[in-house]
Amino acid sequence: MAARVVLIGPMAAGKTKIGKRIAKLIDAPRLDTDKIFVAEHGIIAEFFAREGEPAFRAIEAAIVRDAIATDSVVSLGGGAVLDEQSQQLLADAYVVYLTVSPEAVAERLTEGKRPLVADEGVVAWERIFAARKPIYERLAKRTYDTSRGNLDAIAEDIAAWIASGYTQEKRAGL
Prior knowledge:
Elements: E1 5-8, H1 15-26, E2 30-32, H2 33-41, H3 44-51, H4 53-67, E3 73-75, H5 84-89, E4 94-99, H6 102-108, H7 122-139, E5 142-145, H8 151-163
Parallel strand pairs: 1-3, 1-4, 2-3, 4-5
């Protein structure tokens, strides 16, 4: 099935896990922009420390543009939506916003893996999420809370939406 499915949302919302499930259900390639970055440039936290966030965001934007130009399931890094050109390119995609509660994030954060929350953990996550939330909400065509939800059921609902054809409908999911 040819479709551009893009998963957006904050760090630790489950974009990679759900992306894998959706790709399998719709028999589509899966791309994860953070994994592409790591394969090409090394560990994100180390790159951040060495080169800084602006350098990371510039490379990330190029990776995102290439990824969302394909018919695939794409999991974006939490801050990838900050780039205005990337936002514009999402207009014709099935954009799914995965959200998550701070309590669930506290259980999911891995020390050292996410440079923007390395020092303050969930407190930093909440601040970053609050700043990005309006962008996620504006871009989303479907929204799902992954805090305690069944990830398989969420993926199945998204796959059914894609199979039914594209709509601009916004829906709070499972």
